[in-house]
Amino acid sequence: xxxxxxxxxxxxxxxxxxxxxxxxxxxxxxxxxxxxxxxxxxxxxxxxxxxxxxxxxxxxxxxxxxxxxxxxxxxxxxxxxxxxxxxxxxxxxxxxxxxxxxxxxxxxxxxxxxxxxxxxxxxxxxxxxxxxxxxxxxxxxxxxxxxxxxxxxxxxxxxxxxxxxxxxxxxxxxxxxxxxxxxxxxxxxxxxxxxxxxxxxxxxxxxxxxxxxxxxxxxxxxxxxxxxxxxxxxxxxxxxxxxxxxxxxxxxxxxxxxxxxx
Length: 262
Hints:
- The chain is an alpha/beta fold.
- It is built from twelve helices and nine strands.
- The protein has helices at residues 28-42, 66-72, 76-80, 90-100, 116-122, 150-157, 160-169, 175-181, 191-202, 207-220, 226-240, 244-254, and strands at residues 4-9, 12-17, 49-54, 105-109, 112-114, 126-129, 134-136, 173-174, 186-187.
- Helix 4 packs parallel to helix 5.
- The two termini are 37 Å apart.
């Protein structure tokens, strides 16, 4: 059965986890399908925004427990240590691929986002959650540590003590508390509708400026020194000024019409 669907319309790619009967739990096929979906969008110039969601009652309940039995018979070094996707292994790429997609990624989160599920959501630029959503960095429950990209992104979102408590305890937190921590961007009674509305607005912005903004944000968060960030600001801006997308943005604003970016 298909684990992930990708639908592209009006420059918005809707990526949906389609294992709703299993709360979109991550088995090997789901992991591979998520990574494949993300990789396919990295070079799609028609896509301006991605919306990531899960069908059924949950965004993603984390690793399918049946996988524990499969992993028990494999050498963990052989399974985890090879770098199959740049700096990441296959499991880490579930999160990291969305940071590498060159356009904004919005996660619409509902039900639960546990373990690998929260790490998947953290790969997005923006997370919109239903108020009743529960989130947990759950690996410690199983005697493990986060290993699906979470430790590459968590320190950018929350304070060190908050991150450590989440990792050490594996306690679930509600969406309101998660928003206060920095894990959730905003709350909505219909997170998918809110994500699609936001995606529609972002898709009307200059595509080249939006991609530049994501690159610049990534660079600013990379730990580069102030001088390097200021230079990168200037470099990205110089590449935009006077170009067709920027000129169309100016004309559309002045003429009070929707832009038409070619």
